[in-house]
């Protein structure tokens, strides 16, 4: 049959053409050429009208077979091209996991902040809250309401930076006590106040014109000196270890009566006496006492109804003792070789 002859060789022709097809656009074009409305198959079918039924049947079967073969060839070519695209993509996006990574310089928590965080953790766990106050303070709150009137000789203990006769850079965190008492108007208080303080000192290994303190104040009914001792013993255990002990020595602060100096047993010799503790077995860490009646009265508290204790510690001092740091200036030089050493500590 004439028509069938026309279809002979069409598969080979497609094979040949597919050899040059290497992308999906070209494949689409080729598919249209062979299987589209103007393609050879369609032409043959269009001429079927004049054929006998027998011949139509034969031609129909034959052309269906050919159409299927052509479609299969095109489909397998499509698969081949798509596989190639994927493997090219995989090749170009390959990650070499053996290459060295990009190193980030991760900082660490500053040891002073670590100490403050440790103190906050401890005291919050004992029911305290954290209070703060301004670093530019009034003479009234920093001294007068703490029982240090103008001209009081105990003011000499703290060389203060004055901005004018009434304003100063706070030389201690104790004014936060005053602020809190005025705010609470006679109600019980349980706070710690960490923060920066300033003194007109010449910087050396143990002095810095700016340093940090952490103040504590507990006011309530029947608060005693033994409560103070308990609060500070917990601190010594948390900061220096469970094996440490503390002792209270009589001292003087205008805002407390009685006042004490608090020592922690020496961690180097265990209390026997060594060069670090100058043979005494004890190291001084902070000042404390029972809040002076005058201080209570001046901020609206009745000492007959409510009393309590206060303490104030140097954050640098605690940190230096804890990590055996011998020069306070290390905290403020920002030398990464110093700071790096605290990456692992906790
Ligand atoms: N403010 C004192 C100082 O800077 C430390 C201190 C001592 C604070 C006794 C207190 C305290 O609250 O009760 O030297």
Description:
By secondary structure, the protein is α+β, with helices and mostly antiparallel strands. Helix content is 40%, strand content 20%. The chain is built from 12 helices and 10 strands. The relative contact order is 0.10. 3,4-dihydroxyphenylalanine binds at residues 172, 174, 215, 253, 255-256, 287-289, 310-312.
Give the neighbour order of strands across the main sheet: 1-5-6-10-9-8-7
Helical content stands at: 40-55%
**CA-based gyration radius:** 44 Å
Give the overall silhouette.
Answer: rod-shaped
Give start-end ranges of low-pLDDT stretches.
none
- Report the structural category: alpha+beta
State the helix count. 12
Main pleated sheet: 7 strands, mixed
Order of helices and strands: HHHHHHEEHEEHEEHEEEHEHH
User: For the residues shown, what is the average pLDDT?
Assistant: 93
Bound molecules: 3,4-dihydroxyphenylalanine
* Total count of strands: 10
Query: Beta-strand level of the residues, as a percent range?
Result: 15-25%
Distance between the termini: 95 Å
Structure summarized in a few sentences:
The chain is α+β, with helices and mostly antiparallel strands and 346 residues long. The protein is built from 12 helices and 10 strands.
